[in-house]
Specification:
Largest sheet: 8 strands, parallel
Helix content: 40-55%
Oligomer: single chain
Number of domains: 1
Order of helices and strands: HEHEHEHHEHEHEHHEHEH
Structural class: alpha/beta
CATH class: Alpha Beta
Strand content: 5-15%
Number of helices: 11
């Protein structure tokens, strides 16, 4: 389950209710994404709150963009989140799709690349390993609870990025717009092959998609509204054109059928992305997950 961080008019009560409802189960992870030039909560601040509001579920950034942060400070913040959560953190990273976020924090747009992301990850892994990045008296702490640092997932839909990330990533934080299971499996095959060539254990394979429960027209309209808000860097007419086939909208039985199709291709985890902050959406999704 993903936190409704891209929804309007959020407050602490909504966020805490959503987190606690997810933690009640049977979800495996609680996820949230990052944007800068938007009204969503700061990722690291939210991580601290989620660590306090939950006790069971894994916490997963889907995704955080390392190039938007100083890598040492980011490593310290994430290690702190791993400490506070008792070692429940997984870090999904990506290059980010919005150049305006780079400009907003004064980050170098030329680092919006696979190499730029990998360079930042390399620094973070050195911090988590207890290495000194400079001639400091002590290394940067705290040490993460998980030896060597939290597991790392690469957020991408591109085979090139996925192959490159096999050297340092533990899995894929994927996404699908149109729920094309065959196409998703093609990307999973790329990951399986790349990890095998790197001599690593098989990757943790995830995908994600937007969801809405309700009567067909009502649920589809909910997805459409969310996309118009979230995809504010895309002309509205393009969003209008893609909305009818993006994400999932419907009943519990229909969602269960979709999840089972992804299960059949070896998906380790499907991350549902809400299009409403109504906590009832979490409870309805929990009923579906319990049937898997």
């Amino acid at each position: 389950m993903t936190m409704p961080v891209m929804e309007p008019e959020l407050d602490a009560t909504v966020l805490e209710s959503w987190a606690r409802a997810t933690d009640e189960g049977p979800f495996s992870s609680l996820c949230w994404g990052e944007r800068i030039t938007f009204s969503n909560p700061d990722s690291l601040t939210l991580l601290g709150a989620l660590a306090a509001w939950t006790t069971r579920v894994r916490l997963l950034t889907t995704v955080i963009v390392p190039q938007l942060h100083d890598p040492v400070l980011l490593a310290k913040g994430l290690a702190t989140g791993d400490l506070l959560s008792g070692g429940r953190l997984t870090v999904g990273v990506g290059v980010g799709g919005r150049i305006e976020d780079y400009h907003a924090v004064g980050a170098d747009p030329s680092t919006q690349t696979i190499r730029g992301m990998a360079d930042s990850v390399a620094v973070m892994k050195r911090v988590w390993a207890g290495e000194k990045i400079t001639e400091s008296v002590l290394p940067t702490g705290p040490a993460p609870v998980q030896p060597g640092g939290p597991p790392l997932f690469v957020g991408t839909i591109g085979p090139k990025t996925l192959r490159s990330a096999a050297a340092w990533a533990d899995g894929l934080a994927g996404t699908t717009l149109d729920l094309d299971v065959a196409k998703q499996n093609e990307l999973f095959d790329v990951a399986r092959e790349a990890w095998a060539q790197a001599g690593k254990p098989k990757p943790h394979l995830t995908t994600s998609f937007w969801f809405a429960f309700g009567a067909p027209d009502q649920a589809r309209a909910q997805v459409h509204r969310h996309l118009l808000r979230y995809m504010n860097w895309i002309p509205a007419e393009y969003v209008d054109a893609m909305a009818p086939t993006t994400g999932w909208a419907g009943s519990e039985d229909e969602l269960l059928a979709v999840l089972r199709r992804f299960e059949e291709i070896g998906t380790d985890e499907v991350q549902l992305i809400p299009t409403s902050s109504d906590v009832d959406q979490v409870r309805r999704a929990a009923d579906v997950a319990a049937r898997l």
